[in-house]
Design brief:
By secondary structure, this protein is mostly beta strands. 9% of the residues lie in helices and 49% in strands. It contains one helix and eight strands; from the N terminus they run H-E-E-E-E-E-E-E-E. Strands 1-4-5-8-7-6 form a six-stranded antiparallel β-barrel. Strands 2-3 form a two-stranded antiparallel sheet. Strand 2 and strand 3 form a beta hairpin.
Length: 138
């Protein structure tokens, strides 16, 4: 029988070399005692730790314009690999790349585009992302 814990450890060690910070907006404003104004509440930290960011492109064809002509485009997306014990991410959570082997990835933020995938043989978590923004110099 396959030792899934061993596969999970291998995946974490070799596929998750980045560090991420995943946050979630809580939606409620809070009172700032210094100014008396309502300000957005600080986001909830959902996950802080190791992950792996991988690019993914898909070529799609769709009807575009008023002529109804088929348009082909390449849509960039990203796949985030997380340890199996990471909490479930929700759509619209924000993922910031804190550290990465690819120095250009550090500082970028992404939006969780869909709920994480599940599997009959779980060894890691897979979540699909869309790029949100790049910080200056990234």
């Amino acid at each position: 029988m396959l030792d899934l814990r061993g596969v999970a450890r291998f995946a974490e060690r070799h596929l998750m070399s980045d560090k991420v910070l995943v946050t979630r907006e809580v939606g409620e404003d809070v009172l700032d005692p210094a100014t008396g104004a309502l300000v957005p509440a600080p986001p909830l930290v959902v996950h802080s730790g190791k992950a792996g960011l991988y690019g993914h492109q898909e070529r799609i064809r769709s009807k575009g314009g008023h002529e109804g002509a088929w348009v082909e485009e390449v849509r960039a997306g990203y796949r985030l690999l997380l340890p199996l014990d990471a909490p479930e991410l929700r759509e619209d959570d924000t993922v910031e790349i804190v550290e990465a082997r690819d120095k250009q990835a550090a500082g970028r933020t992404y939006r969780v585009a869909a709920l994480g995938e599940v599997s009959s043989v779980p060894v890691l978590r897979t979540v699909w992302l869309e790029e949100h923004n790049r910080k200056a110099g990234a």
